[in-house]
Prior knowledge:
heterodimer; A: 186 residues; mainly alpha; Arp2/3 complex 21 kDa subunit ARPC3; disordered N terminus; B: 271 residues; alpha+beta; 4 helices
Amino acid sequence: MMRSHEVEQPAIVKLPPAGELARLGVLLLAALLLQTLVAPNIRILGASPDFALIIVVAVAMLRGCQVGAAFGFLTGVLVGVALLEPLGMSALVFVVVGYFAGRYAETADVSAPVAPLVGVFAATCVACVMLAMMQYLLERQVPIGFWAARVLVPSLVLNTLLSAVFYLLARRVLRGRGVLRADETA
Amino acid sequence: MLQRRLVAVVLVLLSVGLLTLYFREADNGFVHRVQDGAMRVVAPLQEGSARAIQPLRDGWNWVADLFSAKSENERLKEEVEALRAAVADELTTQAENDELRALLEMRRARIYPDDVEFVMARVIARSTTAWYSTVTIDVGSNDGVRPFDAVVNGQGLVGRVESVKATASQVQLLTDQQSYVDAMVVPNQAEGLAAGSVTGSLSLQYVDKSEEVAKGQFVVTSGRQGSIFVRGIPIGQVEGVGAQEVELYQSITLRPAVDFRKLDLVMVVRR
């Protein structure tokens, strides 16, 4: 029991309330199901849409960099487990993408309708570069022409086209106006 | 702000730790066992979704074939016609029947020794990144599948089993950039290695310049001693032959026997 003269120490990481956690859980489940059951069966322009990445960016833009990074990590680990991928690869990419998408929403005006598209576009670029670098470190072939034509461009087109739909879906599930910018919180 | 950065750094370190653990541990290590457990749940779901999406994928492939056929030769035009007819006539069921018939023909053709067994499997997922040419099939160690088992379909060699879980396995396709198969050209028996690439193309490497190889010749597994594949499984057809003065070996490109876009039913060859 806490005595009156004791000062409560702030928690290092404050968990969101239960309702918020449940809503994030719904989005996590949606990302996992889409990425493991639907994406492996779709190949357009030689690439599969990265539903998990799009949802991670949407959550990060609506809830900030801390939630974005944590949500990205969990999504990446679960996708890696379910798709028999090298575990940690997607998690690493999604943590970085989730963090910086969250920072983008916290520091820039994301009220414009084009903001989610910009976020997903940039996140897809970062993810493609990171995955190519990891392939290189794993001593696999990474021809630049192939990477640009068969990985980067199709992923950018597919993910950006899908981003608006999933951003609206995520905003509806999370029922929020989004993160406050640094200048608004001051 | 510092706290947010700290959280991100911790999560990045955790991810790197997981990656390190994944590559350092044995196939029966903790992380791999977690994936094994997850596959027991995910594999049936993937099988269901693959079946549900199959007609849509067939339709998409048909449209893609239709567009490319306009600029290609008569062979492709005939193929499009065949696909058009197939779409009109319950495409999915028809394709399955054809595949099963081709697999039976392959067994009757006695390419395989009498002591090998076959395990019928269905492709339930494909790699979602362009860096890996792999598929997941719905049979695993419970069905007697082991790593390095050959995987074939009615058209020829599909690849080899890369990792095995209880109820599902991952198959490295012939076109994967880390796939190398002992191969030979028939009928002159020039030997080499059929190698995949990141672009999905197939080539025959290390064929001596003195060997006469011509466009259109067939390439099959050589089944050399120690090879994981039996002799005579079709790999593809020679599409182009070239050699530079300074190179030791010929540069041979192959057209795969298997249409990897339409993989559905396959057989694992148990040794």
